[in-house]
């Protein structure tokens, strides 16, 4: 059992899209730390969701960090629009990036924190050449596109490997996990090294959202 705690980042992909303002207020009132904004283009992954204007319109409603997860092709094309909208973290997929180092530099130059995400089938060593540049690594525990899926448990070993690498090499990236997180398994992810817990359906379907957030944080 660890006494390590984590930040909670509920994902609005699981919110009622007709009541997103209320969803953001509920995340803040329930003790959430970040708003996880899943951006989907229907090409990199099935499903369509939000754009920069969603972030721009939600930003004034909360003081929480806007944690944008870009499940899109050509992630370099959206850096400026999301920076202009007020995104704090811009996390793109290594699988969608031909020039990942340049994209990371461009994200930072635009004033955002740079994150990279791995789908379940991508090994941690695909990030070897960019880990030293990253503010965040997002380990996806489900295949991208939809909330409400079961966690692929083997991905937690990838998380542990990335935590060990960070320790060995003195890197400073935050480790975030995303997909299939529940109030029951969040502690497992924290034990493996997660600093940020993303949860969509487990937050929005919870009877008591504040109690769920406490569990996501490891309390
Ligand atoms: C999946 C998204 C996840 C998802 C999480 O493509 O990246 O953020 O919305 O939803 P749950 O927590 O319900 O798996
Ligand atoms: Zn996500």
Structure description:
The protein is an alpha/beta fold and 219 residues long. The chain has a single domain (7-216), classed as Aldolase class I (TIM Barrel). The protein is 31% helix and 20% strand. It is built from eight helices and eight strands. The protein has helices spanning 20-29, 52-58, 79-85, 100-109, 155-169, 186-191, 201-204, 209-216, and strands at 7-10, 34-40, 65-71, 89-93, 113-118, 136-140, 174-178, 196-199. Strands 1-8-7-6-5-4-3-2 form an eight-stranded parallel β-sheet. α2 packs parallel to α3 (79-85). The N and C termini lie close together (11 Å). The mean pLDDT is 97. The structure holds D-xylitol-5-phosphate and zinc ion. Residues 11, 36, 38, 69, 178, 198 line the site of zinc ion.
Keywords summarizing the entry:
8 helices, TIM Barrel, alpha/beta, binds zinc ion, binds D-xylitol-5-phosphate, eight-stranded parallel beta sheet, 219 residues
Mean pLDDT: 97
Q: How would you spell out the order of helices and strands?
A: EHEHEHEHEEHEHEHH
Percent strand: 15-25%
CATH superfamily grouping? Aldolase class I
Order of strands, main sheet, comes to 1-8-7-6-5-4-3-2
């Amino acid at each position: 059992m660890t006494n390590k705690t984590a930040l909670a980042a509920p994902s609005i992909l699981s919110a009622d899209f007709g009541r997103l303002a209320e969803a953001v207020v509920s995340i803040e009132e329930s003790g959430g730390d970040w708003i996880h904004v899943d951006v989907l283009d229907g090409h990199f992954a099935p499903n369509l969701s939000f754009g920069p204007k969603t972030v721009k319109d939600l930003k004034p409603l909360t003081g929480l960090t806007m944690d944008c997860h870009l499940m899109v092709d050509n992630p370099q094309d959206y850096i400026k629009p999301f920076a202009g909208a007020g995104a704090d973290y811009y996390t793109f997929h290594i699988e969608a990036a031909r020039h990942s180092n340049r994209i990371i530099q461009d994200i930072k130059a635009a004033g955002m924190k740079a994150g990279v995400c791995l789908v379940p089938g991508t090994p941690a060593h695909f990030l070897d050449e960019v880990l030293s540049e990253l503010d965040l690594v997002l380990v996806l525990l489900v295949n991208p596109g939809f909330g409400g899926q079961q966690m692929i448990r083997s991905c937690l070993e990838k998380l542990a490997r990335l935590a060990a690498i960070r320790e060995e090499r003195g890197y400073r990236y935050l480790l975030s996990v995303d997909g299939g997180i529940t109030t029951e398994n969040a502690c497992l992810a924290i034990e493996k090294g997660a600093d940020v817990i993303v949860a969509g359906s487990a937050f929005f379907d919870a009877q008591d959202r504040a109690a769920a957030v406490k569990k996501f944080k490891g309390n």
